[in-house]
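Worked example 3. Consider a protein that binds guanine.
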Amino acid sequence: MTKTEALIQQLQLEAHVEGGFFRRTYESGERPLLDTAYGPRLRLTSILYLLTRTAPIGRWHLNRSDILHFYHLGEPIRYYLIDDCGQLSTHTLGPDPSQGHQLQLVVPGGVWKASHLPHGDYGLISEAVCPGFEFDDMSLGARAQLLHRFPQHAALIEQFTP
Ligand code: GUN
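Given these inputs, the predicted complex is written out as structure tokens:
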């Protein structure tokens, strides 16, 4: 068993629909639920999230809630964000601020996100979603739809859509 396979087992991670592996680690127990424009939501949820050499891509998707990302272990993970105006920004979540790595990355709700492990065996982070994650709040990006909306980012859209 490789170290990455062992880590997936030790952390009890499962395949995520956006790519990579995850496990939910926290759901706020506060009640009542938050009353949001899209319905009742937990106040906060959190997951562990892992990209690996054989599953190195978190495909383009968008969430209604803000997502905080926290670096834990392994190689740096590259993030590509496209906001509602089509503005692209790139960020690296990693261990070494002297290399321009961020230890923490905030992705506001409504911003398209893709992630990539460019090299190495794995990169492990946590995400905290506030208000809490619901599949109803997540849209997976369809290639044709994203190309139509953001033609200036065609190469990155093609790289991170199936
Ligand atoms: N992405 C960010 N948070 C979550 C979560 O709680 N569950 C799932 N499935 N995906 C997430």
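Take a moment to read the result before moving on. The first strand starts at residue 14 and ends at 15. The chain has a mean pLDDT of 98.
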